[in-house]
Structures are given as structure tokens and as C-alpha cells.
Amino acid sequence: MKTYREYCALAQALDVVGERWTLLIVRELLIQGACRYTDLRNGLPGIATNLLAERLREMEKAGLVSREDAPPPVATTLFRLTKRGEELKPVVEALGRWGGPLVARPIADEEFRSHWLALPIELHLTDNAPHEPPITIEVRTGGEPMLVETVDGRVRARPGSSDHPNAVVSGTASQLLGLLTGKIDLAEARRRGAKFEGDPKALDRVQPRP
Amino acid sequence: MKTYREYCALAQALDVVGERWTLLIVRELLIQGACRYTDLRNGLPGIATNLLAERLREMEKAGLVSREDAPPPVATTLFRLTKRGEELKPVVEALGRWGGPLVARPIADEEFRSHWLALPIELHLTDNAPHEPPITIEVRTGGEPMLVETVDGRVRARPGSSDHPNAVVSGTASQLLGLLTGKIDLAEARRRGAKFEGDPKALDRVQPRP
DNA sequence: CAGCATCCGCTTTGATACTG
DNA sequence: CAGTATCAAAGCGGATGCTG
Predict the structure, then answer these.
(1) Alpha-carbon distance values, B93 to A5, A20, B16, B62, B164 (Å)
(2) CA gap B87, A64 in Å, rounded
(3) Which residue gives the smallest C-alpha to C1' distance to D14?
(4) Do the beta carbons of residue B19 and residue B26 sit within 8 Å?
(5) Does nucleic acid strand C have an atom less than 7 angstroms from the CB of B37?
(6) What is the tally of helices (H) and strands (E) in chain B?
(7) E strand or H helix at B188
């Protein structure tokens, strides 16, 4: 990217992360941790492969990303955020918060990956009873299932499933997003076609209090 | 900008504000309030005039900016952030904070406008004695002077000068930035060529406490 | 198959000139 | 002052091919 050539922290930040795709690559690495090239491509529908390679090189040079060889038997390259790269989390969160209203609607003709739910979940959900025993909700939509867990008074989301979750929800991305962020209640979510099994109190536990 | 077509708040936010120049236009309007076209051009060195016009049109359509005719006798068009546009402040602050380390060095061959100091000043400075009478520091560098004031326990910065400031500092952008954000002390700033007149306690009042 | 590099057509940007 | 018009250069997207 052509630099703005301004002595201004904002402009210099944009010189580094303002190019197309860069912050979405950061999103993938924040959510998924260390990623293979192919994992990144799957999480970034529409990116041209040469652009992904170029961005990763630039981000490595800028100190945002490090490249490491996975130990045998995997023997593949892993990309990981550096400390400096992780520090972009507040930027991603601020943008995600601002963009929240833009996805408060049914999903249109857009791509979706279930692990993207991790962002709004960790942004909007809270543990309303941090001293109770932890709970787990399994969230199923589209591809891989996600686990929503209370831990240390925070709500965490990660790919995976559980043998004994307190509840299991499934539905479209917008149904689950609306339900989890408390924009709609369980009855409304069911009316719209979402499925919920297990303890409704688990949902109350993490939905943001109005 | 081509949209990412992802059902993700971050991607949708970037669809709106991710294009080149857009967040810098937001910076100008956040710092300066309502601006004429020419004011914006002056605060965005290097922008092509057709791009500025195009971005303003897009931002108006996206609901970030409104256009109003200034009352006589000025009779010019003013651009102003809408409520939705103002809500980008946390995004600009997060990026500015992340970019801070990138300008913790002498100014190189880069453009600088004194009003850009408002961002780091309001971001890093605090009123360390909110119950004392308010103070004012005049900051002179490059073009127009800036005023740094304590008000309601916060530190505010705006273009302008004062008849009886508690102190007046002048120097290069990097000297003033280093001094105000407490990265260097007064003696060091003077050693590097900055001038300071008035009450050194005014500086102590607002420099961030380590 | 994972991890790219190359090529090509299209879009966006930047610089300059010009206008009501 | 507040833009529009024009055009070259750079960036992007898509397809394809190469290498360990």
C-alpha cells in the first residue's frame, strides 16, 4: 500500500493494517490461533491466493505475524499472531462493535463461517453468575460446531463440541446471533426456526442483561 | 470498494469504512467538527480532489456524514459527522492507540498538521488534579496553535490561542508529542530544542502518571 | 495436497487540468 | 470554493501452473 506519509498515529496504523484483507486475516488468527495457509483461505472466502501470500509476507515484515514449522508428524507451516499482532484485538473489537447493527438482520446472499460467531459472542455475552459452576452451550450452524463456555467470569467461544453440554442450539447464523446476543428471546428464536435443547437457564446465564 | 460479502460485523464495518482515506476523513471531522471541502483537503495532504469528493458522497450515502449549507454570510457547504459517524470515535481511538509506538520517534519526511495533536492529547493526557482550578496550555508547532485545557476532569484539545495561558510550549511535532505524552520530561525536551514558558506545574497537571 | 508464483483483465487510485 | 474530467499507474480478482 502506498503510505499516507503523515506524522499521525492513526495514519501510520492504517499504513500497516489498512490494506484490503489485512484486518480480516487478523480476525482469523485471533479466533483460530495458529493457522495453516489453507485454514486461512477457508476463513477468507473470496481472497485471491496470491493476495493472501502477499499479505502474509507484508504482515510478517511488519511484525504482526510469525511463521513457524509445525512439529512432526504434521509438518506444515503455521501462521501465528505476534504480541504486536494480538494487540490489534481492541481495534477488531471496536470495528466489530460498530459493525454490529449492520448484521442485525437476516443473513442475505453472503458467506458465513461458524467460527466467526466467536467475535460477537465474546464481545456481547457476559457471565451473569460468575460464582455458579461453569456451563457450556454447543452452537450448531453451517459448518463446524462451536462451544460457548463460561470461564473466569468471562464467556469464551471456540470451535469444538461437548459430550455433555448444558444446552445445544442450532439454526441459521442470524437466528443464533440474535438469540445469543439477546436481541430476540428463546420463544422468538424458536418461532423463526431455531432449535434449542437443554437447560434454558444456561442461555439466561450468558445473554447480555438489558 | 468491492464488498467482502461476509455475514460478519467486522467485514461489514470494513465494507463501509475500510476504503483508503475514509477513516482519515473521519479523523478530520472528529477533530475539527464541521468542515468545508477546503479544510478537509488541507487536513488530508496528498488526497486527490476527485477521491475526496467521491468519498464524501459515499460517506453521505452510508449515513456517516451530512452536508449542510452554512448560513449567510459564509454561504459555503459544511460537512459534519452524523451520530453514526461520531460513533466511529472508539475505532479511531483504538487504531490511534495501536499506532502510537509508530510515531514515538523524530518526525521524518512526513506531513504534519498541528490539529492532529488533538488525537494523542485527548487519548493519553489526564487531569491529575480535577478539583483544582482549570488550566490552559498553548501549544505552538508548524501551523495554527492548539489549546490544551482541563475541563470536567478531562483534557481537551482544540485549535486556538489564549491571552493568559498557564504555559506555552513550542517545538517540533515529535518534541511536543514526547513532552505532552510524558515520554520525555521538560529538561529533555528543552535539551532537544523545545521552548517552554510559564508554570511547569501546568505540565505536571496533564502529563500521564507513569 | 499445501503453499505459493505468474499472467491477464478489470477496478481503484493519484496527478493534473479545468469549470461554474 | 467546491468540485468534475481525464488518463496513466497501481492494486485487485480469477484462473492456472509449478514445486516439495
Answers:
(1) 19, 20, 18, 21, 31
(2) 27
(3) A48
(4) no
(5) no
(6) 10, 7
(7) helix B186-191
